[in-house]
Amino acid sequence: MSVEANDILGGMAIGIGATLVMAVWNLFLKRTFGTPSLNYCLLGRWLRHMPGGTFRHASISAASRKPFECTIGRIAHYAIGVVFALVFVVLASDDWLARPTLLPALLYGVGTVVFPFFIMQPSFGLGVAASRTPKPTQARLKSLATHAVFGVGLYACALGVSYVLRVAAQARLVEFSIESSGDTQHDVGYLLPIARGFRNDLPKDTCRRPENQVGSLAF
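RE: above sequence
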C-alpha cells in the first residue's frame, strides 16, 4: 500500500493520543490501587547508557544516573508510541484510518507487549516477561492490560483523526466546487489525496464535474 502524508500525520497524532491514554490508565492504577507504573527516568537511564555500549543491566535501578534521563525517558516513551502507531497504520488496510474498527487496534495493542516482555524488561534486569520480579504474574497481567488500553487508545484517537480528515476533505471539495463553478473543465484530482480513505464513496466522474457531484458525495 502507498503511504500518504495524511497517513503519517494521522499516525503520529494517534500514537501521541494512545500513549497519553495509556499514561492516564497507569496514573489511575497508581492512585487507585497503588500499582507502580513505568518509571520514565529508568527508561531514559537505559537509553543514556547505550552510547557507552551498555545495553543490558543486572539492575537498571542500580545503574549510575545520567543527566536528563527523566526528560529523555518521557520523550522516548511517546516516541515509541508514535512509532508503534505508524507501523500499525502502514500495516492496516487502506480504509482503516478512514473507518477505524476496534478489533485490529486492540489485537495490535496487545501484540506490542512483546517489546517490554522481550526487550525492555530483560535489559532492565527484570528477566524475560518480568520473570525476576517479586510478582511476575501480576506484572505480566498489568503489562497486557496496559498495552490493551494502548490498543483501545489507538482506536479512540483514530475516530477523532478520521472525523477531522472527513470534515477537512469535505470542506475543501465544497470550497473548490464553489470557486470553480464557472469552470467545468478544472481538474480537482489533486484534492483527492486529502480525502484518502473516503474516495470509495466518490462518484467516478467527480473530478470531471465537481459542480454537479459535490452534493452527492457520501461523506
